[in-house]
Amino acid sequence: MEFAQKITRLPRAYDSERGAEGRALFDGVSGDLAKLVQGAAGCSPYLLSLMLREADWMREAFEAPEAALEAEYLRLRAVGAPDLPSELRRAKKRVALLTGLADLGGVWTLEEVTSALTHFADLSVELSLRATLGAEIRRGKLPGMGLDDLETLGGMFVLSMGKMGAYELNYSSDIDLICLFDETRFARDDFFEARKAFIKATRGMSAMLNDRTAEGYVFRTDLRLRPDPAVTPVCMAAEAAESYYESLGRTWERAAYIKARCGAGDQAAGTAFLETLRPFVWRKHLDFAAIEDAHNMRLRIREHKGLGGKIDLMGHNMKLGRGGIREIEFFTQTRQLISGGRDPDLRARGTVPALGVLAQKGWVPQDVAETLKTHYRAHREVEHRVQMIADQQTHLLPTTGEGMDQLAAFMGRERAGLERELTDRLEEVHALTEGFFAPDAVAPGAAESGAAEPVSQMPELDNDVIARWPSYAALRSERGTQIFNRLKPDILSALAKSADPHGALLAFDGFLAGLPAGVQLFSLFEANPQLVNLIVDIASTAPALAQLLSRNAGVFDAVIGGDFFAEWKGVAGLGAELAALLAAEPDYERKLDVARRFKKEWHFRIGVHFLRGLTGAEEAGAQYAELAEAVLRALWPEVVAQFAQKHGPPPGQGATVIGMGSLGAGRLTSASDLDIIVIYDPEEAEMSQGRRPLATRPYYARLTQALVTAVSAPMAEGRLYELDMRLRPSGNQGPVATSWPAFRAYQEKEAWLWEHLALVRARPICGLESLAQDFMAFRKQLLAEKGRDHGRTVTGVAEMRAKIAAAKAPSGPWDAKIGAGRLQDIELFSQMGALAGGVSNLRVQAGVKGLVRAGLIDQAQSEALMRAYRLFWALNLTTRFLSDTAFDAETASEGAAELVLRETGSKDLASLQAELQSCAAVAAEVIVANLKGAENEG
Question: What is the value of pTM for the model shown?
Fold first, then answer.
């Protein structure tokens, strides 16, 4: 027998009567195979129960176990839907018995055992969904789909998450699934009916696998890893999930997607979705912030589960407890998140393979990786044994001496030796992983004597500037001076090595002179020596940010505050924080300065994170926009309240501020103006009610001017933003605030095409919520209506494109925004796609998808457009961040050039310039060909 020949270890029967009962079921079996059956039955009531049911099948499986599994899978594929629940449960018993015995006897490796369990789980999900979705198709509930579409589940795909995604399912594992569908396969009017069918099919699948019947169950199914599971359906549109991860995705979700794969359904759609999430999961830059996030998750798990403290084997949690499986997984996944964005080789799904690659690439010492791999396999085998005893999803060691005796027998070990080994393994895992997540603070080694050249050997630096530092407020305390003197060699060495040593020195000098005190900040630098390089990076790379630093050294208060490198708070968190600060300040002008300081600190934070590679161009652009939105949200009620003190509350229903252009689309650069319009609902009010009442129209006009002043007026703390209101109805000729009835009438009867295209990127930012909802509903209806006249749209876009080209030529080869096939051109074309495809989403990518949906371009052209757009966006944000002037490759500093190359993924500026020209040419060709072709058809 093939199975018997591979046995390498044997359990001992803890209960001899049960062991004998199991052995009696297999007449003719002898030797080690008989001992294996007897030991398994004598230790596990669950395995004995399976033997009683499936001994005949198992006897044949001993001859060729892998072939027996394949034959079982083939049998299942031929089962009809009515019998599938029963037959899946029968197959589960067979798979559980075979894998259990193969594991206990060492016939299969751990990876072979978990892979077999996972393949069966994949098949179970696939077949159950075909059955439940097939029922919906037969009932005509999935629009446009027939039974032939079951091969791809009608566009639905299931992401296998966690251990299932990595082919690491344990013996009695839940399966974690995220169910999504490709909404682009359905017409807009069919979307909700299709979603309803997918939701029903998903629930049916879950019930088929999860429900316990007289025949048992197949798999406990967990669908809660999907975005915001408390409020979202069990099967979501892929686009909705993508939007969630782009805006709200958290570090633990990034870690979860390391192991994700498409396990069932439409493989092409599933693979495309995972590729879309690649920038979310794998940051292109070294992401050391993930270490603290992972450490905090570990601490929360310990606190929630009560798993802290010294190891006690009795009842110890082998998964979540000290030194357990999860610590190895967190260690591995965090290392992957830090550097996997730069090195695709590190993106292995499995824990053991990932440790191997991390060691190979030098991210983990070879001996540490080998030790953790050994302990991981040993931990997983113990986990399997405690689960096999009674088919329980448990990770706990026994709580009694008898239980430990039983476990030792199950593993073919003596109890004392097993306990010593378990303790040693758990302690060693904890020691290796804890040191990574919570190392003891060490002083920066470069600050030791002789680590840097003395100032006299640094002719690049001006000694007169350095000589005045002891007179600064930050260095007046003895402790501050002592700490700074330990940092000083590193600081001077880094300044001397920068691309512009003198300019960097002056910028650093301005920063140092502005510090009110130094002990806290210098201590922070000493504990985090990378922050020394941060200061120098700012001074030597980004002149615009360096100027902010030298003029506003107070922004480093945010660093001292402790959340400078914490997780981004988003619009809601930022808005709430600023609103609380404004509420605490009684004086209106001081409120405006508070808002300006707040904005500068967070604007600085975004810039520093971008400079240091903690975020990329995509994320930084979104954060700049979210900061602007949060500031407007918090400031608007203050402006209204101040204005109302004199002129009374807003007459009618109120007003809403609409973000247009890049603000509406949620993507700003560090130097962007804010495009807004103000719409108000007068209802039937003619006047305000206040000390100095105003007629409705001038009331809202002056309220809008008050907002402009609050945002744009120069004050002691500078200005917040420049506001641009030229996109309002009739442009500069129209009123600064427009009534809701007038706005609707204008858009329906008078607006030019460009004004309809501008609405593609329009969304409410703050103000009256009911009016905001009415605006979005009207916008959606208007765009759908205007998009029907495709000939008008194409002709108008072609004319607009020609006028733009005639009015302004590109400033040179590094102009990311202006020119054929560049940002502005692609954005205009995507807005046409939004009209043509009936897309209400504000993103450029959605507009390009609309072009595909409308049949105007194919998928390859769509990808070419988005490739060009992403490249030019990265260049645009980076060069605007570096300086207010146009980027010049000839005069750019070394640091500036490196930043541009990092963000664009290019090896040198010459290659980048060639790629820019190539991408622009391809994008322009797609746009021109489409406009000409459609125009001729019209």
Answer: 0.54
